[in-house]
Write a structure and sequence with these properties.
Bound molecules: pyridoxal-5'-phosphate
Number of helices: 11
CATH topology of the largest domain: TIM Barrel
CATH architecture of the largest domain: Alpha-Beta Barrel
CATH superfamily of the largest domain: Alanine racemase
Radius of gyration: 23 Å
Shape: globular
Largest sheet: 9 strands, mixed
Oligomer: single chain
Distance between the termini: 56 Å
Helix content: 25-40%
Length: about 425
């Protein structure tokens, strides 16, 4: 489900032609659809309406202030993993009392900052962290609201780099140890036990692993509620999206397609989990990132060269792995479409960036209509884990970002000026 579609042979984002944006703002260019973004939030939010709940957007998926501001306006909370992300939420006008602070490596100064900002909870990932939060809160004469992250030791059956809920991973506290840790935490003076949390992985496309994990943790959650009066259970994020539409068919929104039976949708997610969760009588927190923003963004790029070798047809574009690292990092699939629809035969093409790494590709042997220098392509589903993972590798400036709302367009991040890349570098006096 998204608002990127062809109108009279031109690819549009809502009411705006993407070709016009590429020509006006240059490439590489990230473009986000506000309607898609908010629609995904609302779909999930309303699927859970039978329970007291809070959807906390995982800021790490896309932390642009405009994205955060739009979601804050819709009532979202935020899942943050650093002081920087918390500061972004504040800068975007988000509500700190709806922020959950996750991550295995919170520093003392990050903890102090979050305590002063009045966040909803710290999701505690280890016993030493629990002690540290208690100590920092004591110094500030505050009480820190916490949830312990349970590692349920279930396999989410997703990519190895985004599996988090087994004992092979660095996340959370082992299921068997959790009661002991709550007992210990309940004796700490500057800690308030507020909830329990888990997150088993990312890009899950079936409901089963979620249901399994929830079912496994349920008795524990019940006992924690009884003993310590906890208020909430956070079931994490991880709802996957369709990157390759060939995997599902038809023109309807993918979660309505009969061919997509069994695939994860907000309705299926809620149908499977509500009967388990509702009887708990706790507030349910969610931490989705990709589901909300993944299909709400595209990366536009210009074809620089077409290079035919004996074996391959290389389409060399001006975006690279420094702009969007997902294909190189996770072998991920992104649908690639020309901004002006083309006719004729498709040829297997490698769509590659200009960086001196063989990992710098977006697709290999992908059927693509013939394109030539100066034409533009869109890499779809680039809204999550796209711009946020960009780097200056090869001294390439960070791309610009644009938000579309109907026919309105706003540059929500300027293209980085090239001199900014070395702004904080200095020559030592003996070389100057
Ligand atoms: C990354 C992460 C999320 C968000 O994951 P998505 O797959 O983008 O929904 C949520 N919670 C935690 C703890 C995370 O680490």
């Amino acid at each position: 489900m998204h608002d990127f579609r062809y109108v009279n042979g031109r690819l549009y984002c809502e009411g705006v032609s993407l070709e016009s944006l590429a020509l006006k703002h240059g490439t590489p260019l990230y473009v986000y659809s506000q309607h898609t973004l908010l629609e995904h939030f609302r779909k999930l939010d309303s699927a859970l309406s039978e329970m007291d709940h809070l959807v906390c957007f995982a800021v790490k998926a896309n932390s642009n202030l405009a994205v955060l501001s739009a979601l804050a306006g819709a009532g979202a909370g935020f899942d943050i993993v650093s002081e920087g992300e918390l500061r972004r939420v504040i800068a975007a006008g988000g509500d700190t009392s709806k922020c959950a602070f996750a991550g295995v490596g919170k520093t003392e100064s990050e903890i102090a900052f979050a305590l002063k900002a009045g966040i909803h909870t710290f999701n505690v990932e280890s016993e030493p962290e629990l002690e540290r939060i208690n100590r920092v809160a004591g110094k500030l004469k505050k009480v820190a609201p916490i949830a312990i992250r349970v590692n349920p030791n279930v396999n989410a059956r997703t990519h190895a780099k985004i599996t988090t809920g087994t004992y092979e991973n660095k996340f959370g506290i082992a299921f068997e140890r959790v009661e002991e840790v709550y007992a210990r935490a309940s004796k700490l003076r500057n800690i308030k036990l507020r909830g329990v949390q888990m997150h088993i992985g990312s890009q899950l496309t079936q409901v089963k692993p979620f249901a399994e994990a929830v079912a496994k943790v349920l008795p524990l959650v019940r006992s924690l509620k009884q003993r310590y009066g906890i208020e909430f259970f956070s079931i994490g994020g991880g709802i996957g999206i369709i990157y390759n539409p060939a995997l599902a068919s038809g023109n309807a929104a993918w979660w309505r397609r009969p061919a997509a039976k069994g695939l994860l949708t907000p309705a299926r997610y809620a149908d499977a989990l509500t009967p388990l969760l509702k009887p708990l009588g706790l507030k349910i927190l969610l931490e989705p990132g990709r589901f909300i923003v993944g299909n709400a963004g595209v990366l536009l790029t210009r074809v620089e060269y077409v290079k035919r070798t004996g074996k391959k047809n290389f389409v060399i574009v001006d975006a690279a792995m420094n702009d969007l690292i997902r294909p190189a990092f996770y072998d991920s699939y992104h649908e690639i479409l020309p901004l002006v629809k083309r006719r004729g035969a498709e040829i297997p093409s490698d769509i590659v960036g200009p960086i001196c790494e063989s990992g710098d590709y977006f697709a290999k042997d992908r059927p693509l209509h013939k394109v030539s220098e100066g034409q533009h392509l869109a890499l779809l589903s680039a809204g999550a884990y796209g711009f946020v993972m960009a780097s200056n590798y090869n001294a390439r400036p960070l791309a610009a970002e644009v938000l579309v709302n109907g026919t309105k367009v706003c540059v929500v991040r300027d293209r980085q000026p090239v001199e900014d890349i070395w702004k904080f570098e200095k020559l030592p006096p003996w070389l100057a």
